[in-house]
Design brief:
The structure holds two protein chains of two kinds. By secondary structure, chain A is mainly beta. The chains are: A mainly beta, B alpha+beta.
Chain lengths: 657, 203
């Protein structure tokens, strides 16, 4: 109790607001031009690394936890949406059109953001406010990946099945706005077909059920309804949202995909009122439910996992000319069920933030939050400052100590420790006990911004991370040589251990705005493991050491836009799959002729080039977009068991009335 | 030398945009044509292509003209191995061309089209043969990205409203085993001032 009171006191005394680490992307920038589907948002954040096995479901590394740790929290209009299922997430589950995104903000820092603890940073999408009166919007997008087998061929040795289709995606949106209130409704249906030889054989092996081959594809349907009321001094909104995805969830302890239906439902009530010129009160109630359910498969695998959350949150803000203070609390009741598991928990989060502006050139900020579960607590503290040292030079610094509740790791081991019996169903041997340590780390950042004149901005940054404890799930799968089964990987001893180590990273960015018609930027990023345990070193080899990104935006006339995105990634290595090195895999049984490939632990370096053209018609009511991905048709692979993203093209048309 | 060429190219693009900006969307042309394959290859040895039907729209843009259209083709299986392999093809495209005047009435326009080749097969393929356990029935519909390089020779009649054109094109559909088709077409075009409502749409 004394500890709790001490922490509360500390929160009020030492609060922080990490404004210096938040970044934003405006609506008319290059990044939003290349956005066609929500998964394209991953191109918006060049600071993050991505891993995917099917091209639709991703793991992100925002720097602190790697691919197997908690994922950055996704917000839609400042309300969190948890689409992370055992830390894989498919952003196409978001019921939002990229044409309605007015601003993207993101941060890699763990922090409390708008009534929620974003444990690995966040990505927030602000949508445009509905226009006055009634509005309707619809869009259609479809694409193909080249080199996938077509339906027929003219050589009898080349008869191939029809499996290469991306989309179609349908999205519809209606809204109505009067002077004080608005309402909006959205629905979408998005479909994909995993087609690549490297994953289609594994996914297809599940699809022959009772003598019938079922379609190997993922189907997402989702929607939302939002009603809001706004006045000068206060605003309130309520949102209902659902999303369901028939997919193949890559379950890392199993070493391959499992057919599953993931679902998310949410109801939220969010409001704020301005009490005076300096004080604001905010509150939120959020109910959400996550499910991983059965999807038809011939192995009868079934996650049968669900989680139901009630979250109450309140915050107070004080803001005058020189100081900004914020404090608040979150109470979460979480009930998780599945395969012998029945668990209920209460988690309390208390936090405070302060931003002190000494003058126009210097400000200091700090932030503290305490996260309290029944048998564990976690404290995070961040302090930093911004200094305008001259007309052209600005420097920012951050020091960050972070702890993470085991509950918030969001991987399955936490639930297996509490009775979730998925390992028995999947015959996964494991070495227990699993680590019960909480993740602990210290991070230091420094960023320099130099205005070189002529609209050229140079940014140079560096970071150092010390992981005192980093929990790493590890599964070195065995090779199953019965190729006809399409299985290939057999789980061996699963381990979940706490590891220690040091990481360091640097980045250099050049932004150049030539004129209103042409702008471009270049970013170089390098990150390395300095020291650590053997497994720590192996784990971080999944993340590339070097990345280069170049973006160019050209708008030769007002109704026509071109964008180019080029990215280089150095090789990555997935030690967990070393037993598959140089082993052959082959296409699915009904596909003829049978095609062969070879597993490699290392994914090669690649240069990926995207071209996008966008043409407006009818005063921007009708917009057409054509995008070519991987123009050079290089081997673009983000996971050793993942697809090779060959040349793709996507067409999108949208109509606003 | 390369830098000089790049500089000239940028100037040419800039000149094109500025010189033609005022004409943008002023004229629209409707094209109708039919084509036959002209270059034999492994694909055309096994599939016979009937005369195609093409309908297209062209509108002058800042430089050259942008276009959209659809071309229907019937592919009949010639090889007895593919008795069930006949299909209808619908190539839906957008494109761009830049015309060069050869004489007062004759012009030549090279260009590029890209789009989707939608294919509807008469019969779905199965593997293994029908009736065998575990039979896999393929979807009889397919679509794939296709691009087309072409050169159009156009002759305008006296008032410039009607014109005849012929076109040589190379089309490639990027299936796993690409489908290359070279065609020669002949057709007629009608050009008129863009109606104000349509001009508003383009803008």
């Amino acid at each position: 109790m004394i500890r709790l009171l001490f922490l509360v006191l500390l929160i009020f005394l030492c609060s922080i607001q990490a404004k210096g680490q938040n970044f934003h992307v405006d609506n008319d920038s290059l990044e939003t031009t290349i956005l066609i589907n929500p998964n394209d948002l991953l191109h918006s954040v060049s600071d993050w690394d991505i891993a995917t096995t099917d091209g639709f479901t991703y793991r992100l590394n925002s720097g602190l936890y790697g691919f197997y740790g908690p994922q950055p929290t996704v917000y839609l209009d400042n309300i969190p949406i948890d689409l992370s299922f055992f830390n894989w997430q498919n952003l196409n589950m978001l019921p939002v059109s990229m044409d309605h995104i007015s601003e993207i903000t993101f941060s890699s820092k763990p922090q409390v953001r708008h009534h929620n603890l974003a444990r690995a940073g966040y990505l927030n999408l602000n949508t445009t406010k509905p226009d006055t009166g009634f509005n309707a919007y619809g869009s259609f997008a479809v694409g193909n990946q080249s080199e996938d087998p077509g339906p027929w061929s003219y050589d009898s040795s080349k008869v191939t099945p029809n499996i290469d289709r991306r989309g179609p995606h349908y999205f519809s949106h209606f809204s109505y706005r009067s002077s004080d209130w608005y309402t909006k409704v959205s629905f979408s249906l998005r479909q994909h077909q995993p087609t690549n030889l490297n994953n289609h054989h594994r996914l297809g092996s599940y699809s022959l059920v009772d003598g019938t081959w079922h379609a190997v594809k993922t189907t997402i349907n989702n929607g939302l309804v939002e009603v809001g009321y706004e006045q000068d001094k206060w605003e309130i909104k309520s949102r209902v949202l659902y999303s369901e995805n028939e997919e193949y969830l890559f379950y890392q302890p199993f070493g391959r995909e499992i057919p599953a239906t993931t679902g998310y439902r949410q109801w939220v009530l969010d409001g704020s009122t301005q009490l005076s010129g300096t004080w604001t009160i905010q509150g939120q109630y959020l109910f959400d439910e996550k499910k991983i359910d059965y999807r038809l498969n011939n192995k009868e695998y079934n996650f049968d996992w669900s989680q139901l959350n009630h979250r109450f949150s309140a915050a107070a803000l004080y803001n005058n000319n020189n100081i900004e203070l914020k404090t608040g609390g979150i109470l979460q009741e979480s009930t998780t069920e599945g395969l012998q598991l029945d668990n209920q928990q209460y988690i309390t989060t208390l936090y405070g933030e302060a931003d002190l502006r000494l003058n126009l050139n210097h400000n200091f900020y700090s932030k503290l939050n305490g996260d309290f579960a029944t048998n564990q607590s976690a404290i995070s503290f961040l302090t930093g400052s911004n200094h305008q040292l001259s007309d052209i030079w600005q420097i920012s610094t951050d020091l960050d100590y972070n702890e993470l509740l085991s509950f918030r790791q969001q991987n399955s081991t936490y639930w297996i420790d509490r009775g979730y019996d998925i390992f028995s169903q999947l015959d996964i041997p494991s070495q227990t006990p699993f680590s019960s340590e909480k993740n602990r780390s210290f991070q230091a950042d420094i960023t320099n911004k130099v205005d070189l004149g002529s609209q050229i901005l140079l940014t140079i940054g560096g970071k150092f991370i010390h992981h005192y404890n980093l929990n790493i799930p590890w599964q070195e799968v065995a090779h199953d040589d019965r190729m006809a089964t399409g299985i290939y990987t057999q789980p061996q001893h699963f381990e979940f251990t706490s590891e220690k180590g040091l990481r360091i990273g640097f980045d250099i960015k050049l932004d150049h705005k030539v004129n209103n018609l042409l702008s471009h930027n270049l970013k170089l990023r390098t990150q390395h493991t300095l020291d650590g345990s053997s497994r720590y070193g192996s784990y971080w080899q999944q993340v590339s050491n070097n990345n280069i990104e170049y973006k160019l935006r050209l708008q030769p006339v007002s109704d026509l836009r071109f964008s180019i995105l080029g990215s280089y990634q150095s090789p990555t290595k997935w030690i967990e799959y070393k037993n598959l090195e140089d082993k052959q895999y082959r296409s699915l049984q009904p596909q003829y002729p049978i095609l062969y490939g070879t597993f490699h632990t290392e994914t090669p370096s690649f240069f990926n080039l995207h071209l996008t053209a966008q043409k407006d018609f009818w005063d921007k009511r009708f917009v057409t977009t054509f995008s070519i991905r991987n123009l050079l048709n290089t081997e673009v692979r983000y996971h050793t068991l993942g697809l090779d993203k060959a040349l793709q093209f996507i067409i999108k048309a949208s109509l606003t009335l | 030398m390369k830098k000089s060429l790049l500089f000239i190219f940028v100037l040419w693009i800039g000149y094109g945009f500025s010189a033609h900006a005022q004409d943008t969307y002023d004229r629209i042309s409707i094209d109708g044509s039919s084509a036959l394959p002209v270059v034999d290859n492994n694909f055309t040895h096994n599939w016979k292509i009937s005369p195609t039907a093409h309908f297209g729209l062209r509108v002058n843009y800042h430089m050259g003209s942008i276009q959209t259209g659809i071309r229907y083709s019937r592919y009949s299986a010639e090889n007895p191995v593919y008795d069930d392999g006949s299909f209808d093809s619908y190539f839906i495209y957008v494109g761009w061309e830049y015309p060069f005047s050869l004489t007062d009435r004759l012009s030549f326009a090279p260009g590029l089209r890209f789009g989707n080749n939608y294919m509807a097969f008469d019969n779905p393929a199965t593997y293994p043969a029908a009736g065998v356990w575990g039979e896999y029935v393929f979807d009889p519909h397919e679509s794939e990205f296709a691009y087309e390089l072409f050169g159009r020779l156009e002759y305008s009649f006296r008032k410039g409203r009607w014109s005849l054109h012929s076109n040589f094109s190379y089309n490639r559909t990027l299936t796993y085993h690409p489908m290359p088709v070279s065609m020669f077409s002949f057709g007629i075009s009608r050009t008129f001032a863009t109606p104000s409502w349509l001009k508003s749409f383009f803008q």
